[in-house]
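Got a spare moment? Tell me how you read both lines of this record:
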Amino acid sequence: MAAKLPPAVAKRLFEGVVIPASPLALDVRRRWDMRRQRALWRYYAAAGAGGIAIGVHTTQFAIRDPKIGLLEPLYQFAAEEFDRLDTKLPEPLLRVAGICGRTDQALAEAELARRCRFHAGLLSLGAMRDADLPELLHHCRRVAQVLPIFGFYLQPAVGGRVLPYRFWRELFDLPEVVAVKIAPFNRYQTIDVVRALADSGREDIALYTGNDDTILLDLLTPFRFRVAGRVVQRRIVGGLLGQWACWTRTAVELFGQCRQVAQSGQPVPQELLARNVELTDANGALFDVAHGFAGCIAGIHEVLRRQGLLETNYCLDPAETLSPGQAEEIDRVCRMYPHLTDDAFVAEHLEEWLAE
């Protein structure tokens, strides 16, 4: 039987929501900090996020290392905590699990995610760098029988691979594909995905941006193509982003503004275009663009540490730290764009989120 989304979850996914890519909370001994992990997810829910993704790049792929052994405990903990959060929310959170590795590993991870009540799997193809197109599609087809697929175009700079138009066009023939995170940080490759969806005729696949360098423009842009003699328009309806793992309250507000403009059909306000540039500049500091994204996870951790949500900016690998000058760059963008932060919101609620 093909994997399917619950109707209420499918509706939210297709309408579009903010989905932060969750970091892993570590203490000063680099041990998993369950209390602050819970606080982080409470923060996302309170900020208005419509879902949470874990086991993805921002969570650190190293949780899969057998010596670390955090993948299953983290997913089981998430299942319990997301159930609790859902009891206090008007609509259930979208639960997205990162799925990695070659086929045997990906199938095992998809089974784990299904048991832990995740709705969809964000399917990374980074481990399939040498696979040809038929092998890639076979891999996706196998995983899709276990869990609905959230397709994933990850930029090569952080472990992805180039995926041509033909791959996306054939992937969209799989009924279990419910969404795509487009994160190549490349306009040509972004258009490949959206054009393939338009050509497929599918209207039940949601497009989500992962392009942290052009978040607001992605949400504001109508993508139009001529298909079989008629104009077909598709829009990116939401985002699944590492950028949205911090300053989430502001992200929700900006997302709402973009969606209102997109749905109205009115001209895009100059202020939103300016915000897009500001957010991209801020992302450059957080994601450490100056050093090839080396400090991208530590940068997110640093913002959350400064707010008190995390105890440290540590990653599992002691060598994975802020790059030289990155802290100063974060200082700069916080001074220049205080309206992009949500420090006051976090300060107001931090104690309740940290409560047992």
